[in-house]
Amino acid sequence: MMTLRCSVCDALPGDADALACAACGELLAFALDCAAVDAYVVEGNARLRRASADPRDRSGVWRFRELLPPIAEDAITTLREGDVPLIDGPRGAAHAGVDRLAYLHLGMNPTASFKDAGMTVAISHARERGAQVAVCASTGNTAASMAAYAARAGMTAVAIAPVDGISPAKVAQTLDYGAHVVAVDGDFDDALRVVRALDPATVAVVNSINPYRIEGQKTAAFVLLEQRRWLAPDWVVLPGGNLGNASALGKGFREARSIGLAIRVPRLAVVQASGAAPFAHAWIAGGDVVPVRAQTDASAIRIGAPASWKKARAEVRASGGTVLDVPDDEIAEARAVIGRDGVGCEPASAASLAGLRRLVAAGSVSRDADVVCVLTGHVLKDTAYAERYHASSAPQANAIVRGVDLARYLNALLLTRT
Ligand code: F0G
What we know:
By secondary structure, the protein is of the alpha/beta class. Among the domains are: about 1-30, no CATH class; about 85-110 and about 215-390, Rossmann fold, CATH 3.40.50. Helix content is about 40%, strand content about 15%. It has 15 helices and twelve strands. Helix 4 (about 115-130) runs parallel beside helix 5 and helix 9 (about 245-260) crosses helix 11 (about 310-320). It is globular. Ligand F0G binds near residues 138, 240 and 300.
């Protein structure tokens, strides 16, 4: 029911391990035979499986396995990923200027980022093929996710990362799961170039250029729709870096509509940090992506040469969506506001709310629109950033209180609440 093809010229890959089309060099993608899928079976299975004890059934990825590439049961490596909540965000809504808003919190995954939904499929596939070593380039989250799933699968993991420019918490997490962390001179784009030059027949490359990653990550669209009785929101807003996730979510929503699980798709808004915004620039200029040297404090999306921009552009266009960029100070403020909703996220994730605010101000999204912001990573992924923010004089900064008389302080607090 699934065939791997070139995402641009539609050619079939000659080689089972290939990550790029032999004919034109573009990325590969799975095509689902939607006519062969029964939406009632998918929906019914997903509902029944939530009450099952089988680890595959408890995963928010594998309970949709009819829509995934087939992988032998004994190769499946799962940590119950994917089953993440959709949470109301009233303060975020007020900040953006919409009546209501929900966060799809992909940071509530086993390694605390959205990568897990894709990694469970990529590592399971690698295991099935007998791969011994998994490799990725990363700004931190892919590395941590790969390291955890490779550890579960008994594989060696090698993360190639610009370690001094990313969150130390993510590096420590990756080391904890036992991966080899190789520091690269340069940035993520340099690291990805190194990884793309490797032979995928000898090592499993698990960046989002691997189409199995995209298949896993598309299930976030199903998990979102499932929690809304299969009614799509008007807009889904998400951060964009290497652009695998925008490609995956767009694919998930399209497939949900094609098989009849949902009657419409949401518009996708992809938000980049202004210092790392080649996709936003290309969207506005109307041409191809021109790589940039990326610079932003949202280190997860410090990416200047996104690998999946063609796939992402096709998805954003098909959804009737848009692409924009937001400056770092607006990301910082939005991140703090998401914290005040009792939710929290890492900086890159908050580009979604900052972007939504701009779209509402520009009149592109109406105040009464039904919007979901995708939060891609947990607040604890980048505590150094949060500490700096709260020690600053930024609008939402919340300084530590020192040297006060506690009784008086509490009394004053009680008075200001009434
Ligand atoms: N948000 C977070 C928290 C991320 O870690 C990333 C990417 C993105 C958004 C962007 O997603 O690349 O699919 O457009 N992190 C990668 C990594 C690059 O290595 O962890 P994308």
